[in-house]
Amino acid sequence: MRSLVRLWRRSIQARVVTNTIVLSALVISLTGWALLRDVAGGLADNRRTAAISEARSGFNSAQQQIDAAVETEPAAQSQTLTQIVDSLTSSRGAQRTYELVLEGPLAAGSNQVPVRSSAAIAAGSLPDDLVDQVELKGGTYWRYSTLGLLGSSDREPGVVVGSQLHVPSTGEDYALYYLFSMSEQQSTLNLVRQALLLGGFAMVLMVGGVAWLVSRQVLNPVRLARGIAERYASGSLEQRMHVSGKDDIARLSTSLNQMAASLQSQIRRLENLSRLQQRFVSDVSHELRTPLTTVRMASDVLHDNRKSFDAQTARAAELLQNELGRFEDLLSDLLDLSRFDAGAAQLDLDTIDLAEIARRAVDDPLLKRRGMKVVLINADQPAVVEADIRRIDRIVRNLLTNAAKYGGSDRVEIEVRQSESCVSFAVRDFGVGLSGDENLRVFDRFWRADPARTQGGTGLGLPISKEDAELHGGTLRAWGKSGEGSEFILTIPKPGGSANPPAIVSVFT
Ligand code: ADP
User: Fold this and answer.
1) How confident is the model over 445-470, as a mean pLDDT?
2) Ranges assigned E (strand) in 89-240
3) Which residue among 120, 235, 257, 502 is buried most deeply as judged by most CB within 10 Å?
4) How would you classify the pairing of strands 172-181 and 98-103?
């Protein structure tokens, strides 16, 4: 049942075919029903008209025979009437299509009237209202009825025509009924019904088949387009749709092909540009290294001898030394990033315990210098992963330094937790926090909350840490609330595990 519902939801073709079958079945049933009603009406009308005219001539000839007979003796009279019934029934020989019933003499207010009939007609074959009409009023009347023989349960449709006969010699009245069978019409109708049913069924199947074929013709190129669009989405833009003819599908294919070609050229252009930029940054950084080493050496000499300079020159030597330090840090960050961009960053894996790293963080000199309290949570259980100790240390140092530099709180929490598939390491402070989308922007290169700030780094620390985490197949994510604090959670997968979901849920979510 569920797979049927899924098929209905996912497949336009299934919906088109089902809807077509249901609607055509409805239309065909309605048409068939109207047709059958007309045929049945026509057959019954014809039979009734023929029956009435045949019965009328029978009534006339019976009345003539009665008028011609002059007996007044009841026995002789009864014989004459029996003869009339016999002669009427035998008038069509073996091919007789009716039965006769003669009732009478009719006595007012009595139900017990003698009956003669050409066969043992079952009770109920003569409709009561017709009998009343014929017996009370003169004239010829008819009714549809179901006819049956005594002792048989089979009944068939028929039409009954009745009229009064008057015996002038005795003044008595008789009622004569013709019972015409309509079984022939019934079987014709059955045949027509069967033919309509079979024809209708075949028609519905054919219409369903046609709908399937037509929808397939329309949907096949759409499916092809979907397949190719999926491949575009997964990055392979070389695929093209086959274009044949000039119809709408061909135009759609052409547009898709043009879109893919334009996307491909744009992406190539951007890739080239990005590669050029990366190469530029990398080349500049490398080129700067040698002169920087020389400048550093010269600066070291000046710095070492600053006491022999006058105050202003000594201050300049100190400034030069400090700024050179920042310059070197920036250059080393840029070189690291260009290694990530070039895909040249390598992991030097070792078995390391993140809980141990958390315990060591308590002695971080910067945190101590700033008089910050470090609270360890769950750091007494070993939390072992395969990782590059140098890179993990760099991430942790960066997170702790940031908490000290930017957090503005006097307390840092470090929490370590592990799940079946990963180990998470959270650094939490309760200072200025992060607002809006800053938890995403902190990972942008060169982004700083306060661009005018001269203190602090270059805005490359967190992007590098994120690249380091991702190099391990892990994640580094940030949460925060303005004025409440911020939290950075590093998650490293265990061998064969995944960093999603992290083992720690941020307190700032
Ligand atoms: P940098 O290398 O200059 O220290 P980062 O990439 O480490 O830069 O951080 C980028 C910016 O993110 C910082 O300039 C600071 O504005 C913000 N930031 C980082 N850590 C925190 C924190 N714990 N609390 C508030 N802001 C922070």
Assistant:
1) 83
2) 98-103, 115-117, 141-148, 155-167, 172-181
3) 502
4) antiparallel
Range with the poorest average pLDDT among 102-116, 145-159, 217-231, 325-339 = 102-116
User: How far, in Å, from the CA of 355 to the mean position of ligand 1?
Assistant: 24
Give the largest CA-CA distance in the chain: 174
Pairing of strands 350-353, 115-117: unpaired
Q: Looking at ligand 1, which atom is closest to the CA of residue 485?
A: 24
Distance (Å, rounded) from C-alpha 361 to C-alpha 376?
9
* d(C-alpha 90, C-alpha 96), whole Å: 7
Q: Which of 430, 448, 507 to mutate to test the pocket of ligand 1 (most atoms within 8 A of CB)?
A: 448
d(CA 201, CA 29): 10
Q: Do residues 414 and 361 make contact, with C-beta atoms less than 8 angstroms apart?
A: yes
Give dist(CA 53, CA 180) in Å, integer. 12
Calculate how far, in angstroms, residue 459's C-alpha sits from the geometric centre of ligand 1.
7
Question: Would you list the DSSP string of 414-454?
Answer: EEEEE-SSEEEEEEEE-SS---TTHHHHTTSTT--SSTT--
Above 90 in pLDDT, residue 25? yes
* Strand partners for 173: 166
Q: Name every protein residue with a CB atom under 6 angstroms from any ligand 1 atom.
A: 398, 402-403, 406-407, 429, 432, 434, 442, 447-449, 456-462, 486
Atom 13 in ligand 1: which residue has the minimum CA distance?
448
End-to-end CA distance of the chain: 40
Atom of ligand 1 nearest to the CA of 463: 6
Q: Which helix (H) or strand (E) holds 480?
A: strand 475-481
Given a cut of 60, whether residue 376 has pLDDT beyond it is yes
342 C-alpha vs ligand 1 centroid, how far in Å? 25
Cα radius of gyration rounded to whole Å, the chain = 53
Instruction: Enter the pTM of the model.
Output: 0.56
Banded model confidence at residue 132, pLDDT cuts 50, 70, 90: confident
**pLDDT for position 498:** 93
Ligand 1 atom 2: residue of nearest CA: 461
Whose Cα sits closest to atom 23 in ligand 1? 403
